[in-house]
Design a protein that fits this description.
The chain has 11 helices and 13 strands. The protein is of the alpha/beta class and 300 residues long. It has helices at 38-48, 63-68, 73-81, 85-92, 112-117, 120-123, 143-154, 214-221, 232-237, 264-276, 279-299, and strands spanning 7-11, 32-33, 36-37, 53-58, 101-105, 128-131, 135-138, 157-163, 173-180, 184-192, 203-211, 249-253, 257-260. It folds into 2 domains: 7-262, Alpha-Beta Complex (Spore Coat Polysaccharide Biosynthesis Protein SpsA, Chain A); 270-300, no CATH class. Strands 8-11-9-10-12 form a 5-stranded mixed beta barrel. Bound molecules: uridine 5'-triphosphate.
Length: 300
Protein backbone atom coordinates (compact mmCIF):
# COMPACT_ATOMS: atom_id res chain seq x y z
CA UNK A 1 0.00 0.00 0.00
CA UNK A 2 1.26 3.45 -0.90
CA UNK A 3 1.72 5.77 2.08
CA UNK A 4 -1.00 8.45 2.25
CA UNK A 5 -0.05 12.09 1.79
CA UNK A 6 -1.06 13.80 5.04
CA UNK A 7 1.51 16.60 5.39
CA UNK A 8 1.77 19.76 3.34
CA UNK A 9 4.48 22.40 3.32
CA UNK A 10 3.47 26.00 2.60
CA UNK A 11 6.59 28.02 1.75
CA UNK A 12 5.71 31.64 2.54
CA UNK A 13 9.10 33.08 3.43
CA UNK A 14 9.57 35.07 0.21
CA UNK A 15 9.73 38.86 0.38
CA UNK A 16 6.83 39.53 -1.98
CA UNK A 17 8.65 42.47 -3.54
CA UNK A 18 6.21 42.71 -6.45
CA UNK A 19 3.60 43.99 -4.02
CA UNK A 20 5.68 46.68 -2.37
CA UNK A 21 4.85 48.90 -0.59
CA UNK A 22 1.93 46.77 0.71
CA UNK A 23 4.24 43.88 1.65
CA UNK A 24 6.33 46.17 3.85
CA UNK A 25 3.87 45.30 6.61
CA UNK A 26 1.30 42.86 5.16
CA UNK A 27 2.44 39.36 4.21
CA UNK A 28 1.43 38.63 0.61
CA UNK A 29 -0.43 35.49 1.73
CA UNK A 30 -2.77 37.57 3.91
CA UNK A 31 -3.92 39.72 1.02
CA UNK A 32 -7.54 38.95 0.28
CA UNK A 33 -9.48 37.76 -2.73
CA UNK A 34 -12.94 39.20 -1.98
CA UNK A 35 -12.96 38.42 1.77
CA UNK A 36 -10.59 35.50 2.26
CA UNK A 37 -6.81 35.70 2.45
CA UNK A 38 -4.83 33.74 -0.13
CA UNK A 39 -3.64 31.38 2.58
CA UNK A 40 -7.21 30.35 3.43
CA UNK A 41 -7.77 29.14 -0.14
CA UNK A 42 -4.57 27.10 0.17
CA UNK A 43 -5.60 25.54 3.50
CA UNK A 44 -9.06 24.63 2.19
CA UNK A 45 -7.54 22.99 -0.88
CA UNK A 46 -5.11 21.01 1.27
CA UNK A 47 -7.85 19.81 3.63
CA UNK A 48 -9.98 18.64 0.71
CA UNK A 49 -7.01 16.54 -0.43
CA UNK A 50 -6.74 14.79 2.96
CA UNK A 51 -3.92 16.86 4.46
CA UNK A 52 -3.85 16.70 8.29
CA UNK A 53 -0.63 18.57 9.12
CA UNK A 54 0.06 22.05 7.81
CA UNK A 55 3.67 23.22 7.91
CA UNK A 56 4.39 26.87 7.17
CA UNK A 57 7.89 28.01 6.30
CA UNK A 58 7.87 31.66 7.33
CA UNK A 59 10.29 34.53 7.81
CA UNK A 60 10.61 37.81 9.65
CA UNK A 61 7.55 40.03 9.29
CA UNK A 62 5.00 37.22 8.85
CA UNK A 63 3.42 37.62 12.29
CA UNK A 64 0.03 38.54 10.79
CA UNK A 65 -0.06 35.14 9.14
CA UNK A 66 0.39 33.31 12.45
CA UNK A 67 -2.21 35.57 14.11
CA UNK A 68 -4.69 34.77 11.36
CA UNK A 69 -4.76 31.13 12.43
CA UNK A 70 -5.36 31.90 16.11
CA UNK A 71 -8.85 31.32 17.46
CA UNK A 72 -10.77 34.53 18.18
CA UNK A 73 -13.01 33.73 21.22
CA UNK A 74 -13.88 37.38 21.91
CA UNK A 75 -15.03 37.95 18.35
CA UNK A 76 -16.92 34.64 18.40
CA UNK A 77 -18.74 35.68 21.61
CA UNK A 78 -19.69 39.06 20.14
CA UNK A 79 -21.11 37.43 17.02
CA UNK A 80 -22.97 34.86 19.14
CA UNK A 81 -24.47 37.60 21.33
CA UNK A 82 -25.65 39.52 18.31
CA UNK A 83 -27.09 36.38 16.69
CA UNK A 84 -24.85 36.68 13.65
CA UNK A 85 -24.83 32.94 13.08
CA UNK A 86 -23.71 33.00 9.46
CA UNK A 87 -20.63 35.11 10.25
CA UNK A 88 -19.90 32.94 13.28
CA UNK A 89 -19.97 29.86 11.10
CA UNK A 90 -17.59 31.48 8.59
CA UNK A 91 -15.23 32.48 11.39
CA UNK A 92 -15.26 29.03 12.98
CA UNK A 93 -14.62 27.34 9.64
CA UNK A 94 -11.19 29.00 9.60
CA UNK A 95 -10.15 27.67 13.03
CA UNK A 96 -7.18 25.33 13.12
CA UNK A 97 -6.84 22.75 15.89
CA UNK A 98 -3.86 23.02 18.22
CA UNK A 99 -1.00 20.92 16.93
CA UNK A 100 -2.38 20.81 13.41
CA UNK A 101 -0.27 23.71 12.23
CA UNK A 102 3.47 24.30 12.62
CA UNK A 103 5.78 27.17 11.74
CA UNK A 104 9.41 26.88 10.76
CA UNK A 105 11.64 29.85 10.05
CA UNK A 106 13.70 30.21 6.91
CA UNK A 107 16.37 32.59 8.15
CA UNK A 108 17.46 33.77 4.72
CA UNK A 109 15.45 33.73 1.52
CA UNK A 110 17.76 31.30 -0.30
CA UNK A 111 15.08 30.01 -2.66
CA UNK A 112 12.04 27.74 -2.78
CA UNK A 113 14.17 24.57 -2.60
CA UNK A 114 15.82 25.82 0.56
CA UNK A 115 12.44 26.79 2.08
CA UNK A 116 11.13 23.25 1.53
CA UNK A 117 14.35 21.78 2.97
CA UNK A 118 13.81 23.83 6.16
CA UNK A 119 10.74 21.65 6.89
CA UNK A 120 12.59 18.33 6.52
CA UNK A 121 12.56 17.39 10.23
CA UNK A 122 8.78 17.79 10.45
CA UNK A 123 8.10 15.64 7.41
CA UNK A 124 10.56 12.78 8.07
CA UNK A 125 10.45 9.83 5.75
CA UNK A 126 7.11 10.11 4.00
CA UNK A 127 5.62 11.64 0.86
CA UNK A 128 4.43 15.22 1.27
CA UNK A 129 2.66 17.98 -0.64
CA UNK A 130 3.94 21.49 -1.32
CA UNK A 131 1.46 24.31 -1.94
CA UNK A 132 2.43 27.82 -2.98
CA UNK A 133 -0.47 29.97 -1.75
CA UNK A 134 0.12 32.65 -4.37
CA UNK A 135 -0.96 30.20 -7.06
CA UNK A 136 -4.72 30.15 -6.55
CA UNK A 137 -6.63 27.54 -8.54
CA UNK A 138 -10.37 27.71 -9.17
CA UNK A 139 -11.56 24.17 -9.84
CA UNK A 140 -14.63 22.03 -9.37
CA UNK A 141 -12.49 19.38 -7.69
CA UNK A 142 -9.62 21.10 -5.84
CA UNK A 143 -6.30 20.75 -7.68
CA UNK A 144 -4.36 18.96 -4.94
CA UNK A 145 -7.18 16.45 -4.54
CA UNK A 146 -6.99 15.67 -8.28
CA UNK A 147 -3.24 15.18 -7.89
CA UNK A 148 -3.50 12.95 -4.80
CA UNK A 149 -5.91 10.69 -6.69
CA UNK A 150 -3.51 10.49 -9.65
CA UNK A 151 -0.53 9.98 -7.33
CA UNK A 152 -2.22 6.96 -5.75
CA UNK A 153 -1.74 5.28 -9.16
CA UNK A 154 1.78 6.50 -9.99
CA UNK A 155 3.72 7.16 -6.76
CA UNK A 156 7.03 8.92 -7.37
CA UNK A 157 6.94 12.71 -7.63
CA UNK A 158 4.18 14.75 -9.20
CA UNK A 159 4.07 18.40 -10.24
CA UNK A 160 1.02 20.37 -11.37
CA UNK A 161 1.49 21.33 -15.00
CA UNK A 162 -0.13 23.90 -17.25
CA UNK A 163 0.27 24.86 -20.93
CA UNK A 164 1.85 28.32 -21.33
CA UNK A 165 2.99 30.23 -24.43
CA UNK A 166 6.71 29.52 -25.03
CA UNK A 167 7.49 33.25 -24.68
CA UNK A 168 6.33 33.01 -21.05
CA UNK A 169 8.44 29.92 -20.29
CA UNK A 170 11.16 31.98 -18.62
CA UNK A 171 8.82 32.59 -15.68
CA UNK A 172 8.46 28.85 -14.90
CA UNK A 173 10.11 25.47 -14.57
CA UNK A 174 9.35 23.66 -17.85
CA UNK A 175 8.92 19.91 -18.45
CA UNK A 176 10.75 17.85 -21.03
CA UNK A 177 8.14 15.20 -21.81
CA UNK A 178 9.00 11.51 -22.16
CA UNK A 179 5.50 10.17 -22.69
CA UNK A 180 2.23 12.08 -22.95
CA UNK A 181 -0.65 10.10 -21.45
CA UNK A 182 -3.28 12.85 -21.54
CA UNK A 183 -3.92 14.24 -18.10
CA UNK A 184 -0.54 12.85 -17.06
CA UNK A 185 2.91 13.06 -18.65
CA UNK A 186 6.06 11.25 -17.64
CA UNK A 187 9.05 13.53 -17.51
CA UNK A 188 12.61 13.07 -18.78
CA UNK A 189 13.93 16.53 -17.90
CA UNK A 190 13.06 19.81 -16.18
CA UNK A 191 14.51 23.23 -16.95
CA UNK A 192 14.12 26.16 -14.58
CA UNK A 193 13.25 29.47 -16.27
CA UNK A 194 14.41 28.65 -19.84
CA UNK A 195 14.40 31.18 -22.67
CA UNK A 196 11.71 30.63 -25.35
CA UNK A 197 14.32 28.88 -27.56
CA UNK A 198 15.54 26.58 -24.83
CA UNK A 199 12.10 25.60 -23.47
CA UNK A 200 11.72 21.83 -24.08
CA UNK A 201 7.88 22.07 -24.20
CA UNK A 202 5.12 24.50 -23.33
CA UNK A 203 4.17 22.56 -20.20
CA UNK A 204 5.06 24.63 -17.15
CA UNK A 205 5.19 23.67 -13.48
CA UNK A 206 2.97 25.65 -11.12
CA UNK A 207 2.74 25.71 -7.35
CA UNK A 208 1.44 22.28 -6.38
CA UNK A 209 3.69 19.29 -5.79
CA UNK A 210 3.56 15.81 -4.29
CA UNK A 211 7.11 14.76 -3.48
CA UNK A 212 9.00 11.80 -2.11
CA UNK A 213 11.27 12.31 0.92
CA UNK A 214 14.26 11.65 -1.40
CA UNK A 215 13.84 15.31 -2.34
CA UNK A 216 15.25 16.33 1.06
CA UNK A 217 18.36 14.22 0.45
CA UNK A 218 18.77 15.88 -2.96
CA UNK A 219 18.31 19.33 -1.42
CA UNK A 220 21.02 18.51 1.15
CA UNK A 221 23.54 18.36 -1.67
CA UNK A 222 22.28 21.18 -3.87
CA UNK A 223 24.13 24.38 -4.59
CA UNK A 224 22.38 27.49 -5.89
CA UNK A 225 20.85 27.13 -9.35
CA UNK A 226 19.07 29.59 -11.67
CA UNK A 227 18.94 33.13 -10.21
CA UNK A 228 21.41 32.18 -7.42
CA UNK A 229 18.61 30.39 -5.50
CA UNK A 230 18.38 26.79 -4.34
CA UNK A 231 15.80 25.51 -6.78
CA UNK A 232 13.16 22.92 -5.91
CA UNK A 233 13.04 22.01 -9.61
CA UNK A 234 16.69 20.86 -9.53
CA UNK A 235 16.03 18.55 -6.57
CA UNK A 236 12.96 17.06 -8.30
CA UNK A 237 14.86 16.60 -11.59
CA UNK A 238 17.36 14.37 -9.75
CA UNK A 239 14.54 11.86 -9.18
CA UNK A 240 13.85 11.39 -12.89
CA UNK A 241 16.42 8.63 -13.29
CA UNK A 242 15.69 7.11 -9.95
CA UNK A 243 12.48 5.10 -10.48
CA UNK A 244 13.66 2.14 -8.39
CA UNK A 245 14.03 4.10 -5.17
CA UNK A 246 10.52 5.56 -5.24
CA UNK A 247 11.48 8.17 -7.82
CA UNK A 248 10.16 9.02 -11.26
CA UNK A 249 8.60 12.39 -12.07
CA UNK A 250 5.14 13.03 -13.52
CA UNK A 251 3.45 16.20 -14.67
CA UNK A 252 -0.29 16.40 -14.00
CA UNK A 253 -2.49 18.56 -16.21
CA UNK A 254 -5.03 19.67 -13.62
CA UNK A 255 -8.56 20.72 -14.51
CA UNK A 256 -9.15 24.28 -13.35
CA UNK A 257 -8.04 27.85 -13.78
CA UNK A 258 -4.85 29.04 -12.15
CA UNK A 259 -4.32 32.65 -11.11
CA UNK A 260 -0.82 33.92 -10.46
CA UNK A 261 -1.64 35.98 -7.38
CA UNK A 262 2.07 36.67 -6.86
CA UNK A 263 1.74 39.18 -9.71
CA UNK A 264 -0.44 42.28 -9.72
CA UNK A 265 -2.21 41.44 -12.98
CA UNK A 266 -2.96 37.88 -11.80
CA UNK A 267 -4.21 39.11 -8.43
CA UNK A 268 -6.60 41.58 -10.07
CA UNK A 269 -7.88 38.94 -12.50
CA UNK A 270 -8.50 36.57 -9.59
CA UNK A 271 -10.34 39.30 -7.68
CA UNK A 272 -12.71 39.81 -10.61
CA UNK A 273 -13.18 36.07 -11.22
CA UNK A 274 -13.83 35.24 -7.56
CA UNK A 275 -16.12 38.26 -7.23
CA UNK A 276 -18.17 37.14 -10.24
CA UNK A 277 -18.38 33.64 -8.75
CA UNK A 278 -20.18 35.00 -5.64
CA UNK A 279 -23.98 35.08 -5.89
CA UNK A 280 -24.25 38.17 -3.67
CA UNK A 281 -21.75 40.18 -5.76
CA UNK A 282 -22.25 38.95 -9.31
CA UNK A 283 -24.96 41.34 -10.55
CA UNK A 284 -23.34 44.50 -9.20
CA UNK A 285 -19.87 43.60 -10.38
CA UNK A 286 -20.99 42.41 -13.80
CA UNK A 287 -23.05 45.57 -14.30
CA UNK A 288 -20.08 47.71 -13.33
CA UNK A 289 -17.68 45.86 -15.65
CA UNK A 290 -20.10 46.17 -18.56
CA UNK A 291 -20.51 49.90 -17.96
CA UNK A 292 -16.77 50.33 -17.72
CA UNK A 293 -16.09 48.46 -20.96
CA UNK A 294 -18.83 50.38 -22.78
CA UNK A 295 -17.41 53.72 -21.57
CA UNK A 296 -13.91 52.71 -22.67
CA UNK A 297 -15.16 51.58 -26.08
CA UNK A 298 -17.08 54.87 -26.53
CA UNK A 299 -13.95 56.89 -25.64
CA UNK A 300 -11.79 55.14 -28.29
P1 LIG B 1 8.31 34.06 -5.46
O1 LIG B 1 9.24 33.73 -6.55
O2 LIG B 1 6.94 34.48 -5.82
O3 LIG B 1 9.00 35.17 -4.55
O4 LIG B 1 8.27 32.79 -4.50
P2 LIG B 1 8.36 36.13 -3.48
O5 LIG B 1 9.47 36.63 -2.61
O6 LIG B 1 7.22 35.48 -2.76
O7 LIG B 1 7.76 37.35 -4.35
P3 LIG B 1 8.47 38.47 -5.24
O8 LIG B 1 8.97 37.76 -6.48
O9 LIG B 1 9.57 39.12 -4.44
O10 LIG B 1 7.34 39.42 -5.52
C1 LIG B 1 7.41 31.70 -4.74
C2 LIG B 1 7.02 31.07 -3.43
O11 LIG B 1 8.18 30.57 -2.75
C3 LIG B 1 8.29 31.14 -1.46
C4 LIG B 1 7.50 32.44 -1.53
O12 LIG B 1 7.06 32.82 -0.25
C5 LIG B 1 6.36 32.06 -2.47
O13 LIG B 1 5.33 31.34 -1.79
N1 LIG B 1 9.74 31.34 -1.16
C6 LIG B 1 10.57 31.83 -2.11
C7 LIG B 1 10.23 31.04 0.10
O14 LIG B 1 9.48 30.58 1.00
N2 LIG B 1 11.56 31.23 0.35
C8 LIG B 1 12.41 31.71 -0.59
O15 LIG B 1 13.63 31.85 -0.29
C9 LIG B 1 11.89 32.02 -1.85
Amino acid sequence: MRKKVTKAIFPVAGMGTRFLPATKSVPKEIMTLVDRPLVQYAIDEARAAGIKEFIFVTSRGKGALEDYFDHAPQLENELKKKGKDKLLEILKSTNMDSGEIAYIRQHRALGLGHAVWCARRLVHNEPFAVILPDDVIAAEKPCLQQMVEAYEETGGNMVAAMEVPKESASAYGVLDIKEDMGSMVSVKGMVEKPSADEAPSNLAVIGRYILSPNIFRNLNKLKSGAGGEIQLTDAIAKEIDNPDRGGGVYGYRFRGQRFDCGSKAGFLQATVAFGLARDELRDDLEGYLQELMAARAAAE
